[in-house]
Amino acid sequence: MIVISLLIISLLLFILLAIYSGGLSVFTERGKGHGLLIGTSLLIPLLALVLYLPQGLSLGAGFDMALSEQVTNLESAQTELQRVEYLHSIEKILVPLLDQSAPADRHLQLLAETYSSLNLHSSAVSVYERLEQRYPSDAMTLTLLAQAMYLAMNSQADLTPDDFSNENKRVTLILDRALNVEPDFALALSLRGMQSFQIKDYQQAVSFWNSALTRYQPSSAEALSLKKGIQLARSKLSQSIQTDDALTAIIRLRIELGPNLDHSGIDSLTPVFIFARDKKGGMPLAAKKIRVDDLPMNVTLTENDRMAAVGLIAQRQVVVAARLALSGQAILQKGDLQSQELIVSVASAFDDAPIHTLTIDH
């Protein structure tokens, strides 16, 4: 089993804090339409990798003695220049191991973390890929690989929009593998939230970060960092809705599963459809699709979600409902689970729209 990386977890929390602080130095605009990216200056090469030593370095062997010495030097380094120098020394010791057929897990992990600390994310990816081959079902290994890939693609300014999109999809697939193994794995949830925030899907970011938040003590540093990220995402969501001229018809909903509904055997990727229709019946006027592992989640239906030529904007009241589509189909099938149906008013402003709760329980 791969040792939990305090370096990487701290990196994630640092990113959230930096996002919240509003310092634009942590973000730059990608010139080719990629939106916001995380700058490599966010990495934390200052952390002492000596924390890794108790996880298995044998101090008796000459190789590990030399490695231990450099890690100890790293811990005692007083300047950034010294830290970088010792990181390169660790790298120099470990790189020859890559030519071996089966280097030790602990050495591969330490090399990957060293690469990350030196902002050599593509190199870190190649090392984590070797670990992933050994542990294809380990949530931490998969998440560390996904995070290295995420940082690598965000540090490449010459990626085309298509290449960036494809890389982002690869990261998502790996994170989804991690979450299929451990649905509540906080680091994977946090990174999925960062992905969503980057593409300006603030509602999804809030959902992932809220899920991650449940894994920490309320007063912990991790929880405080996530709360600040959630606060910023909600602020961005509110701003985007209030400044979009197309959003003049708004319904705010909270979608949740009933407390007595046994969903333990339901695939986390099962779709949930939320829709609004005319009180007289007919096809949905507006609809949105999320996943069961997003729940509970606040959802906003607007004219941008319309399913017909005219959606909510021409309505004063509509019927809303949510359906957990066990069939995977948008059309109601036998065995699908549903919420109650509510008649709600269509608001013309975000602040005027109350939140209505839909509970999927039958």
How would you describe what is shown here?
This protein is of the alpha+beta class. It has 2 domains: 6-240, Serine Threonine Protein Phosphatase 5, Tetratricopeptide repeat (Alpha Horseshoe); 245-360, Immunoglobulin-like. The protein is 43% helix and 15% strand. The strands form 3 sheets. Strands 4, 5, 7, 8 and 9 form a 5-stranded antiparallel beta sheet that branches. The radius of gyration is 23 Å and the shape is elongated.
Instruction: Characterize the main sheet.
Output: 5 strands, antiparallel
What share of the residues lie within helices?
40-55%
CATH class of the largest domain: Mainly Alpha
Instruction: Spell out the CATH superfamily of the largest domain.
Output: Tetratricopeptide repeat domain
Percentage of residues in strands: 15-25%
Low-confidence stretches: 1-60
Shape from CA axes?
elongated
Structural class given helices, strands, pairing?
alpha+beta
Record field, number of beta strands = 10
Radius of gyration: 23 Å
Number of domains: 2
Distance between termini?
40 Å
Mean pLDDT: 77
- Multimer state: single chain
Q: What distinguishing features does this structure have?
A:
Serine Threonine Protein Phosphatase 5, Tetratricopeptide repeat, Immunoglobulin-like, disordered N terminus, 10 helices
Task: Quickly describe the structure.
It contains 10 helices and 10 strands. It is of the alpha+beta class. It folds into 2 domains: 235 residues, Serine Threonine Protein Phosphatase 5, Tetratricopeptide repeat; 116 residues, Immunoglobulin-like, CATH 2.60.40.
